[in-house]
Amino acid sequence: MAAALRPLRALSRAPLEPRDRRLHLSAVRGDAVVISGRKLARQIRQEARHEVQQWVAAGNRRPHLSVVLVGENPASHSYVLNKTRAAADVGISSETILRPASITEEELLDLIGKLNNDAAVDGLLVQLPLPEHIDERRVCNAVSPDKDVDGFHVINVGRMCLDQYSMLPATPWGVWEIIKRTGIPTLGRNVVVAGRSKNVGMPIAMLLHTDGSHERPGGDATVTISHRYTPKEQLKQHTIRADIVVAAAG
C-alpha cells in the first residue's frame, strides 16, 4: 500500500551534500544563472524510474496512483493528463476517475473513502479546484495521509512544519529540488518568498528556513514572506537585500 510510495518519498529525503554547496559558484559571484528545469526533471524522473524498477524487481507490486477529476475545467484536465503521463514514464500505473461537476460533497467523500480502503491504491489525489459547493479543505483531509501524494492533508502539513518526513506539495518540492540540485547555497542566506498560499508560498518558506540537521533537512535560511498587503517600498527593500527570491504569487 503506502509503502509502494517509498521510491518517490526518497527523493524528498536527500540532504544537501557538502559537495553540492560548492557547485553554484556563480551564485557567490552574483552572476545571473539560467537553470534548466527540463534537464533537472529528466534527471529526477530517471531516478524515480530506477527506484520503481528496483521496487518491482524485489517482488513488490507496482505502485498505483488514483486521480479523481471533478468537472470539465480544461486546465485541470491538462494537469491530470500530465500527471498520469509522468506516472507512466517512471513505471507507476494510474487511473483517472471522472465525476461531473454536479457531484455532491458527500458522494465525493464516499468515493475517497472507498479509494482509501482499496489496498490496490497506493497514491490518491483529488485535482483542485473543486466546484464551489464542495469544501476543498474537507476533501483534502478526507484523503488518507498515507496515500496523500499532494501533501495537502493536515497531518502531512503538520509533519512538514515539524521537519518530519512527509509527502510535499509538488510546486514547493520542485523549487526545493532545484535549489538542492543546482547547489545554490542557502545556509544563512536571506530569502524572500513572494506569496503566502498554503499550497505553495508557505511550504516553500518552511523548507527553506528549517534546520538542515533535522529529520527532513531544511535550508537554514532567513526567510521573509511577502504578500498582497506588503507595501511596495518594503518589498523593494526586501528583494534588494535578498540572496534568493522565490516568486510564488499569481
Automatic annotation (TrEMBL):
Domain Tetrahydrofolate dehydrogenase/cyclohydrolase NAD(P)-binding stretches: 169-250
GO cellular component, one term: mitochondrion
EC id: 3.5.4.9
GO molecular function, one term: methylenetetrahydrofolate dehydrogenase (NAD+) activity
Keywords for the protein's UniProt record, in alphabetical order: Hydrolase, Multifunctional enzyme, One-carbon metabolism, Oxidoreductase
Tetrahydrofolate dehydrogenase/cyclohydrolase catalytic domain mapped to chain residues: 35-150
Enzyme class: hydrolase
A single GO BP: tetrahydrofolate interconversion
Keyword Oxidoreductase: yes
Pfam families listed in its UniProt record: THF_DHG_CYH (PF00763), THF_DHG_CYH_C (PF02882)
Family, per entry: Belongs to the tetrahydrofolate dehydrogenase/cyclohydrolase family.
Descriptive protein name: methenyltetrahydrofolate cyclohydrolase
Organism field: Oriolus oriolus (Eurasian golden oriole)
Organism lineage string: Eukaryota, Metazoa, Chordata, Craniata, Vertebrata
